[in-house]
Amino acid sequence: MRRMTARPANAHQARLLRLLRDGGPNSRAQLGDRVDLSRSKLAVEVDRLLETGLVVADGLAASRGGRRSHNIRLAPQLRFLGVDIGATSIDVAVTNAELEILGHINQPMDVRDGPVAVFEQVLSMAAKLKASGLAEGFDGAGIGVPGPVRFPEGVPVAPPIMPGWDGFPVREALSQDLGCPVMVDNDVNLMAMGEQHAGVARSVGDFLCVKIGTGIGCGIVVGGEVHRGTTGSAGDIGHILAVPDGRPCACGNRGCLEAHFSGAALARDAKDAAQQGLSAELASRLETNGTLTAVDVAAAAAAGDATALDLIREGGNRTGQVIAGLVSFFNPGLVVIGGGVTGLGHTLLAAIRTQVYRQSLPLATNNLPIVLGELGPTAGVIGAARLISDHLFSPA
Amino acid sequence: MRRMTARPANAHQARLLRLLRDGGPNSRAQLGDRVDLSRSKLAVEVDRLLETGLVVADGLAASRGGRRSHNIRLAPQLRFLGVDIGATSIDVAVTNAELEILGHINQPMDVRDGPVAVFEQVLSMAAKLKASGLAEGFDGAGIGVPGPVRFPEGVPVAPPIMPGWDGFPVREALSQDLGCPVMVDNDVNLMAMGEQHAGVARSVGDFLCVKIGTGIGCGIVVGGEVHRGTTGSAGDIGHILAVPDGRPCACGNRGCLEAHFSGAALARDAKDAAQQGLSAELASRLETNGTLTAVDVAAAAAAGDATALDLIREGGNRTGQVIAGLVSFFNPGLVVIGGGVTGLGHTLLAAIRTQVYRQSLPLATNNLPIVLGELGPTAGVIGAARLISDHLFSPA
DNA sequence: CAACTTTCTCCACTCACAGGACAAAGAAGG
DNA sequence: CCTTCTTTGTCCTGTGAGTGGAGAAAGTTG
Question: Is residue A86 domain-shared with residue A178, that is, in the same domain?
Fold first, then answer.
């Protein structure tokens, strides 16, 4: 079938498309209340959008005491693909134009296998979603990668944990393979956009979104827009100094936050503790699985294991210290904690909160919520869909 | 005489006023090149501006191979007042509409005397500038205060070093006293705006401006706009943890950056060193003046005093460590170092650079200039003038 | 003095948009 | 069933913003 070819012709149409995306179906009258246009002008633009096929009128809404209104909604066959490439797994999801997830697949993977192998897997996952009847094709795709991206070109730059990806034309390659427009961003930025669109950060203008997974990153939203920095590396807080003369880090320095707390560091510390006989719980898990991950630590902590709790608390303190500095600097209205390690839950959050509330300025922390992300593993793919829809729902 | 009463009627006029402010006098044709308008429309808007008196046509420019152009410039009698309130002194300056400084006064003062006493002094300084014939009145004033400000209302909030100023209606009071529109901001933000307008940060979209004076603060510019944060305390980096379990700070915590390096901390450390007999140079200065300030340390360092140099280097290292974290987080295109302590010059800058280049990500530091501010003590007042002119040169 | 440039003005035409009149469609009440 | 009121959507005209071309004004160059 024919995919979305048209783009909004002007800012009004773009505005209307975003309103329909974020607010669901609406009558012309309801749209008129939210947009600063006369009824006549609005009708013209809606008609033009109907002509392009980007929106459709389906059926009449219930009467609100007068003539029944026509429901205007985004074309129901529109499909966006959201791809979230992590260090060790891939998430792929299909959404409709309202960015609701219609299907979602997660598969293990190793980014270090390089872009070619990873893309093959992404394409097969996308094909599987298509085959299940959720989409006949994609009108656009957003993709997040775990490293800095030159945003305008959609190309990763100098990604530390992604050897082989440096300079790979992700946007162009994926766009060719999928046959639709593609936008690329850092995975952390997409998580922030996801939480902004459908999660805890709705209606917050300035916020930070800290993602603790294999590494640590931070999405920065200023005035509703993601801040990517001069070279696309903004938010790369994993290598901020957390412990003077601390542990050696892969980056060559010592005491980086990531060397002291992250999925990888936690797994290593848990293994050490198990081998030193500090925790029977962890030791038995190590013996069973042959290795330990953050999930094991979470489980041990949930079971009340003191060592596991200590590790989490210690890591939360480190992370909280760094976040405290960022809060003083940036003065956000909200801090969201997300990523794989959020399984550590309340213990982690409490440690982070303690540090931030203790160390940052009262003025900056007085009304500052520090909360877990609401969307879990879907934040990234929703953010990815949002990224491409923002692009497509803007004037051509 | 009658002051500026008119405001630009639309975005085009505002754009033109800012072009004339930043680019100096221009012909209609030159303006047409910089603004996306047809010659006819441009002529209409320029004519309207001429009618309001905001701009004037004075004389003909030299020919560029054809008919000579009329020079269009901002009304020459327009005057802005820039006020920069520091912890220990006040700077007041008059500028023309192009934000060129026509007169500048600096006087010692203590913010802790409270807003009433300080305003009295500001008004007498403004009167002195008027009396010298530089201005017959002011069309607008910008004022910077050394603490967080609720920007929309122009009111300081919970300023640690300014007891008595909390909630004082600075904007309203000064506006009444001066009889012109007033805008209030944090002094550090104004310094950033000053360097952006006329200093080293011209044409840089994202940059940080670290001001080291009595305290330490940081102006944050994102996409050309100052980021003030949710409660107006963004950039308050003086209380970021620099030394775990370090020196007690006035804020109640330990190890804050400001407790280890700032004008106040440097003076204290220098005094300690002098009294412990570590430096003859500093000791003799202490005896002569009865006290020591950052200026003494700068002079001693310039004279080759090893203790003074050590103090500066140590402070620069601490500051550099904190800035390194901010650079990783924010990924700016430029870092400007300014404030009273810049008299410490190259030694300080070298220490900061070393830490940042060593600790931040290569991607973030590869093309990152770290430089001293270009405007010195005038950055604040220029920024203040810029603040109010941005306000006045925007659609009413 | 002729030919060419640059600057500025004038005018007619287009298009975006507002807002009123009105038609369509339903609810509420007698 | 009919009248009245409300809500929704359409049509039409007037206004003002903006474009682009023609041409006048005022230079330079050879």
Answer: yes
Output residues with Cβ under 7 Å from nucleic strand D.
A 27-30, 39-40, 43, 47, 64-70; B 10, 12, 36-41, 60, 63, 65-68
Q: Are residues B260 and B363 in the same domain?
A: yes
CB atoms within 10 A of CB A90: 19
Token reading at B384: 């203040």
Kindly report, residue by residue over B50-90, the tens digit of the pLDDT. Answer: 989 999 998 888 887 788 888 999 999 999 999 999 999 99
Interchain CB distance below 8 Å, B328 and A237: yes
Are A219 and A188 in contact by the 8 Å Cβ rule? The answer is: yes
> Nearest CA to A262 among A305, A220, A218?
A218
Residue contact A240–B358, C-beta within 8 A: no
Nearest chain B residue to A325 by CA distance is B240
Looking up residue A209, the CATH number of its domain turns out to be 3.30.420.40
- Statement to judge: residues B258 and B355 lie in one domain: yes
The secondary structure of B126-152, three-state, reads: HHHHHHCCCCCCCCEEEEEECCCEECC
Show the domain range for B30.
Answer: 11-74
Question: Token pair for residue B113?
Answer: 């005397």
CA closest to B361 among chain A residues: A239
Q: How far apart are CA B369 and CA B212, in angstroms?
A: 18
Q: What is the pLDDT of residues B292-326, one digit of tens each?
A: 888 888 888 888 888 889 989 999 999 999 999 99
Do A206 and A98 share a structural domain? Answer: no
Mark whether A119 and A187 lie in a shared domain. Answer: yes
Q: How many domains does chain B have?
A: 3
Give the amino acid at A242. A
Check residues 7 to 26 of chain A and report those whose beta carbon is under 7 Å from nucleic acid strand C. 10, 12
Site of tokens 């190309």: A155
pLDDT digits (tens, 9 = 90+) for A302-343: 888 888 899 999 999 999 999 999 999 999 999 999 987 777
> Could you identify the residue written with the tokens 């005397």?
B113
Task: Give a yes or no: residue A2 inside a domain.
Answer: no
A161 with A21, same domain: the answer is no
